[in-house]
């Protein structure tokens, strides 16, 4: 075979292999940042999850006490992780714990999931620290219990506009059942994850438009359910807030394919049992958004606020 003919015959094959490699590394057509991945006990488990669902980068949600462990994980997998810091704001040393972690390299505060009011003095101190260091703060907002006796987290959401107005330099990232239930103007009080058609004018929808300092974390059943329940509405919602929506999974499945437990045995979130939340929400987004908007939500928006280098 002449050299030229030979090359002509192998080049398309080589190109196909190259393309296939790119596809397996980036099945979503580019890098994907999961901004809501809780650090796991086993150092490799987070990375295994990411590889299984095609996520390339993650924000490791890490308590103040586990910062060193997160650093270790980051050093083992350079270029794939940044980390957050969380601590109970009602503890006496909360200010110092947050400040130390941020000075040590944490890029955000969260997840804050404590039994405090959103406008409490304790939370206000956190908002001030977030503004001072220009890191976002992410809160889990939930009042309806997942199990008997569960206390509400970050209460007072219907008055949250006062906080948003009072802290214009703080970047707030909302997350959780009640934050997403308010995508609709009618919010039932007897369940955490309302289903069915969305009524226009919900507080979350309005505030994302009105306040430049409010962003939305799309993770967990709460985010997935809100965007699945009325896809006609969601298309418009995603278009309206394409610069404000930030992809995250909050998935706890083992392999990024749905094995193990994806939503911590939350009895209300059985619709995602056996599924990987990251995959489900990425698939949904691909269906509801243009490729450009998909890229913004799954990469650009989060990478900007969590300071993730490409
Ligand atoms: Zn949460
Ligand atoms: Zn998963």
The global form is globular
Overall pLDDT score: 92
Largest sheet at a glance? 8 strands, parallel
Percentage of residues in helical conformation: 40-55%
List the bound ligands.
zinc ion
Could you tell me the radius of gyration in angstroms? 20 Å
| Run of helices and strands | HEHEHEHEHEHEHHEHHEHH
Major sheet: arrangement of strands: 1-2-3-4-5-6-7-8
Overview features:
alpha/beta; 310 residues; binds zinc ion; globular
Structural features, described:
With 310 residues, the chain is of the alpha/beta class. It contains twelve helices and eight strands. 42% of the residues lie in helices and 11% in strands. Helix 6 links the parallel strand 5 and strand 6. The protein has an eight-stranded parallel β-sheet. One zinc ion (ZN) binds next to loops.
Please describe the topology of this protein:
Elements: H1 3-25, E1 33-38, H2 45-53, E2 57-61, H3 67-76, E3 81-85, H4 94-103, E4 108-112, H5 121-133, E5 137-140, H6 160-166, E6 172-175, H7 177-181, H8 203-210, E7 214-217, H9 220-228, H10 231-240, E8 245-246, H11 277-288, H12 291-305
Bound molecules: zinc ion (2 copies).
Brief description of this entry?
It contains twelve helices and eight strands.
